Amino acid sequence: MENRELWERLNMDLEKHDEFLAPLPQVFTELFLNRKNRPAAMGYFDFVVGDVHGIRVHELYAMKEAGAKVFSTFCVYVPEEIVVATGSASIGLCAGAQFTVSSGEKLLPRNLCPLIKSTMGFKLDRICPYFQVSDWVIGETTCDGKKKAWEILNEYIPTYVMDLPQKKDAKDAHLWEEEVREFASFIERETKVELSTKNLALGIQKINNKRQALKRLADLRKHNPAPIHGLDVLLINQLAFFDDPVRFAAKVNDLCDELDLRVKEGIGVAPADAPRILVTGTPQPLPAWKLHALIEQTGAVVVGEETCTGERYFKDMTEPADNVTDMLANIAKRPLKVNCACFTPNQGRLEDINSMAKNLKADAVIDFSLQFCQPYGVESYFVGREMEKGNIPFLRLESDFSSEDEGQLLTRIEALIEMVRA
Ligand code: SF4
Ligand code: SF4
């Protein structure tokens, strides 16, 4: 089946979809393909972007024809292991495009985080085949904006909401474990597949392997000169939410093998004295590439992301167990180690940032908040104070998915880089 026929079957707005995708080849060529010295193994990820609304959507459609379901998520707390165990697909939807924000604003307040507006806009505009192929959206009660937006989204696509606690005490952990068990029953009902020791162990293993591969890649970035551009790694982290987990892990490991050789031979994408930047803050979902592109345009290199399109997604693994009850308990434990600003207090995040800055030998930290994101915007105060204590140069930035403020952002980033170089 051709892509267009598939998109028609998925009830997409083809005209609007063409308009949305039209600039992508040029933007991708300028930002990614034209860069010098990229690892050859990036070819796979470039290929995936080249047909971003094709091959993988065909696979998901075929899975559905064979009786499986597609569940879409927006947060790293949703346990994808459980979905994958039943033979269904768990995908993270992209919500990093300015194109759909104005449609989202038809239903949502303008002064709301662009990630939420972009998400809503993708569904209203019917231009995302991943949204269209999904049977369910799995939301969570992380921030107030998302929590309330799910109620509206539910009028367009069935939306299941997981109740995430706001603290990490024993009673909160207990509540979350119950929530994970209820989610597991919901997935069993929907997919008509019972969770067993065998299939759940396999689900855990597949997702752990994907996380291990991403962690291996992240670890290679501590070398100097940096063996890979931060922008390329951001792209890989973004694609981690879409691709088949087994194939994806294999391709990331192939890339890491190539980077191992680069490290041995001292080959890098930037000179050894290029300023090394750690980015922290809100996630940058596909296709939000602006921040990394601007930072690297100055000659600096991004060496890590303390974000959910980075370290927070893959830093912890799910412990194995020998029965379904204990496996679900372990699945519930892993996300509670993730230090999202939606939790209070969130001292663990400051420790994560400090340890990443040290391991990656970062010269400066840029804390990025999407506009109107209250949890990360407010928590930035503590991040700045912590960096000051450690004498780590620090810059706080706030932006959206548009290109309007690129000049302003670049000026501020250049000032930071000059200071680091001085
Ligand atoms: S930043 Fe928080 S709410 Fe957003 S994806 Fe990460 S864990 Fe979920
Ligand atoms: S970036 Fe902030 S406001 Fe936006 S969805 Fe995530 S936590 Fe909520």
From TrEMBL:
Domain of life: Bacteria
Keyword Oxidoreductase: no
Keywords, comma-separated and alphabetical: Iron, Iron-sulfur, Metal-binding
Any GO MF annotation of the entry: iron-sulfur cluster binding
Gene3D superfamilies per record: 1.20.1270.370, 3.40.50.11890, 3.40.50.11900
Cofactor(s) the protein needs: [4Fe-4S] cluster
NCBIfam families: double_cubane
Family of this protein: Belongs to the FldB/FldC dehydratase alpha/beta subunit family.
The protein's name: Uncharacterized protein
Lineage start: Bacteria, Bacillati, Bacillota, Clostridia, Eubacteriales
